[in-house]
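Internal QA ticket QA-208
Title: Verify multi-chain structure generation after dependency bump
Assignee: T.L.

Test input:
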Amino acid sequence: MRDSGKIAILIALLIGLSLVLVLPGLTPENYEFFLGQRLPKLLAIIVTGGAIGYSAVLFQTVTHNRILTPATLGFDAMYLLIQAALFFFLGGASFLVADRNANFLVSVVVMVVLALFLLRTVFGRSGHDLVFVVLVGTIFGQLFRTLAYFLLMIISPSEFTSLQNKMFASFSNINTNIVLIAMVMCIAAAGWLLRDMRKFDVAGLGREQSVSLGVDHDALVKRTFIVSAILVSAATALVGPIAFLGLMVANLAREIATSYRHTVITAISVLLSSVMLLAGQLAVERYMNFGTTVTVLINFVGGVYFVILLLRGNRL
Amino acid sequence: MRTIYAVIALAVLSCASLFIGNIPITLNDLLSWSSDKVEVLFLTRFPRLAAVLITGAGMSICGLIMQHITRNRFVSPTTGASVNSAHFGLLVATIFFSAYGYISSLFFAAAFAMAGTFAFVFLIRKIKVRSLEMVPLLGIMLGILIEAMATFLAYRYNMVESLSAWMIGSFTWIISGRYELLYLSVPMVLIAFIYANKFTVAGMGEDVSLSLGLKYDQVVNIGLGITSVVTAVVVIIVGAVPFLDLIVPNIVSLTKGDNLRRTIWDTAIFGALFLLICDIFSRLVIFPYEVPIGLTVGVIGSITFLILLFRRRAYER
Amino acid sequence: MIEVRDISKIYSSVTVLDGVSFRIADRSITSFVGPNGAGKTTLLGIISRLIKPDGGEVLLDEKSISEYGGSDLAKRISILKQSNFVNMRLTVRELIGFGRFPHSGGRLTGEDKDMVERAVEYLDLAEMAEKDINELSGGQRQRAFIGMIVAQDTDHILLDEPLNSLDMRHSVEMMRILRRLTDELKKTVVLVLHDINFAARYSDRMVALKNGKVAALGSVDEVVREDVLASVFDVPLEIREIDGKKICIYY
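Actual output:
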């Protein structure tokens, strides 16, 4: 099958699943209420999926590996720490904690700044060894998570568990404003890299070869990191951590696509990611009666795929 | 020489730690043998001290063994999927076999820890990994996968809160009668001492081991068996104490080198001392409450790990 | 013409290159030789702008390469590094098509396609043009990468140890291809070589490096001399002449 056919099938799947999520039980009387609830959720899922699928492919290309994705850099922990720190220093009643829109914006901005700061210091010291960078990011993630819990503990040892649960984002309490903000942010960030798609094709040949072919590889890496930071921050603030989704869809997209072109691979990855997230959410709602969360489900499936990928002997 | 200082510090701090807690105990109480105070001492203070020392020494030695077997400085039960697997096993035991008490917890936590650790070691042997840092990264990701499986199960059986509690180790609930399982680590550690030389040889790789006449697979199995049992016991009684098992052997080897027979004593002593200091800090920082030890060690441990990583970098250039 | 002027490079207090200066003659093959750690690969990296020098500059036609734009320089100098593992599914023809990137930005014009076909034929790759590059043997893949560089159509070609991991037959084949590039297509080829005899047999000029400095340079006859090479490599050696070509014996 040609790549355009595959993309068409994915689009059809996306539309079909969207209808399954939105339509059931709608009547002329209740549609305003239900749509007001379901459409933001649908948008949030598509934006999150798209953001993760897009950043994972490009990040893997410039880092020349198929195992690491921006999600491994500990963004979820960063989000957690920001929430805990706001709570700790400003108190639960303060504007930045109570107002969800303001909280979302501040979280994303701080995450992007923090991520870039990390990447800069780490890169400044270690040159081009990306595995090192990602390991350092992962450990920073662990540090942030324990620091966040530490702060919560100090705020109130007796309410620790309830505070801990409040800190996680989830699709079920999404609101329209946040989704729209996230969507604009993601589209702008992703759009910035669109003109570089052909450079990503070259970047796949490795740093040396792309420099030889006239691509400013270091600048491309920097741009990719900035965009990944924005996309993953937005996605994390919307649903929380989904470590394995990006890894899974980016690899599947490379296997599905016949072409090596990043325009094609990225499109497939974005669509596939949204479709999977949507299917996961539907499975959780319809068949498991919210007996689990979509993030746990996806991490489970993605994690198994990851082990298979390793066993098939991919070069690391 | 340094070892002696560590032993003295350990002794002094051990005594001091007996006097920290909500019920004040003074030397006079002991001299006059005030019975309720002495009871507190035997009911909570001694058990806690013992738990801290055993956990500190035991986990550090586990880290040391795993480093040698995987031939990678940055691999330990924390970064080698053992701790997460033990969580999973403990969860299975609690959900399905709670009637059997500690026996089932021990069996499942140890069996799962073993399965997870062996799976990880098998994976990194099967795929040829290019860089030193990739190995712990793979272990951490495998850990995320196992944690996701456990969480999946926990959601079905309403156990999410227990699971997240196990992830943060704590000595708060250690009292006489509820921690004795930890003593199972002691014979394990003794076996480790006996095998110290063989672990060192195994650390030089399979080819070297075989040419030196060592039963490589057997030594690896014993090493991973020891770490799995100790990890399981600690996870059941205390919970996760992240990175303790990674940083202690690394810090010891910075000054004492990598001959396991020489470093294993220092690793045990220093591990116990390090955890004792962290424990005393955790109990004092928001007195009369206390911070779980998992958080204190998690913060200090991850920072130390980062320093170790950057240090190695600077050293190589 | 490429001129290296007073280049130095220091990696955390270790001086890898120390005031290196020379000119590279056009339309000839120049080999960098020397013991391990002499700075050959670093020097090649600096000439190809992969590595930034700590001092000095590299001039291309009297203008510093740092003043050229990325794709302008990519039309003049190409480089091939020793490891060319690619994490993409690409056919040989697609790989060679990448060589046209500096000229067309990734959208192949009719002229680009002609250039690609010419490169395919020049390197005798027509039979495997539709094969996945990861299915090729090491020697074939190396040839495909050379094809890319031929399509890139630069007047200067730099190669870092192109014979690494090639067997004898493919090594000879590779050196013959480079010779043809110089003789027929008038390219300037600069390469790092480990094997002094390959260098002597196929090069026009040689640059011998030792401890980050130029120990000797000139034509093959000027450099391949017992006294010169013995001091560069620190081993006693003997040079014989067979059919007018010099062979160095060092064991």
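Spot checks passed. Chain C has ten helices and twelve strands.
Status: verified.
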